[in-house]
Specification:
- The protein is α+β, with helices and mostly antiparallel strands.
- It is built from three helices and eight strands, in the order ααβββββββαβ.
- The relative contact order is 0.15.
């Protein structure tokens, strides 16, 4: 005689096992791993120019909707790099906050000095590691002091964007640094005696060509 299939008992056992599986998954944080992504955060204040070690950082499970591409996921990608700004406790570590070898000459990027004669104005204080935008204004044969910001003379778009400042000296011929800490902007300068930007040769030639055509440049942070 065939035994009658007890559908009610089957579904009771099935949902019980499903419930127990969900409880176990929750205890093991299996669901959390699907809804969050690990990101690297600072344990304590990391001062500018600090070479980051394992003791400086920890891993935090960030909700997926808050994660961005600039956040580091792996501690090994951070350890050994130098902080280019102050990183606060429990602040995620981003590529912008670390030296990405932008300030070292490479096969593509070199350090090019920008003569003061090429400049109309520096908007904001300026220090090494800053990333600046460069716009151009037609000056012709006028003295830089006579150049006015006539909208018809200014190119409508930045010539270059997010250009790393490789080096900047102040009026005392010393590199500009923070007054109290590496991220302190009070000691930045609008009147540097020497600026070097990390550029490709192609980008430098763009600036050089524009200057020869009668343009001068505005650097902004």
């Amino acid at each position: 005689m065939r035994k009658k299939f007890n559908k009610q008992l089957f579904f009771s056992i099935f949902f019980f096992l499903l419930f127990m599986g969900a409880v176990a998954a929750n205890e093991l944080d299996l669901f959390k791993s699907l809804t969050t992504t690990q990101v690297v955060m600072a344990k304590d204040v990391i001062e500018k120019d600090t070479v980051i070690t394992n003791e400086n950082v920890w891993i935090f499970q960030m909700p997926n909707e808050l994660v961005t591409d600039e956040m580091y996921r792996n501690v090994n990608d951070v350890v050994g790099k130098t902080a280019t700004q102050v990183i606060l406790p429990s602040q995620y570590v981003s590529a912008k906050a670390l030296d990405q070898s932008l300030l070292r000459p490479t096969a593509e990027h070199e350090f090019f000095p920008i003569p003061n004669a090429w400049l109309v104005e520096i908007q904001g204080t300026l220090r090494r590691y800053d990333q600046v935008n460069i716009s151009a204004i037609y000056a012709g044969k006028q003295d830089a002091a006579e150049v006015t910001f006539n909208s018809s003379l200014i190119k409508s778009e930045y010539i270059l964007e997010q250009v790393p400042v490789a080096y900047v000296k102040g009026s005392r011929n010393e590199e500009v640094t923070g007054l109290q800490s590496g991220d302190d902007r009070l000691y930045g300068t609008q009147n540097p005696s020497n600026i070097q930007l990390s550029l490709t040769l192609e980008n430098f030639k763009v600036l050089e060509k524009l200057y020869m055509e009668g343009y001068k440049f505005v650097i902004s942070i």
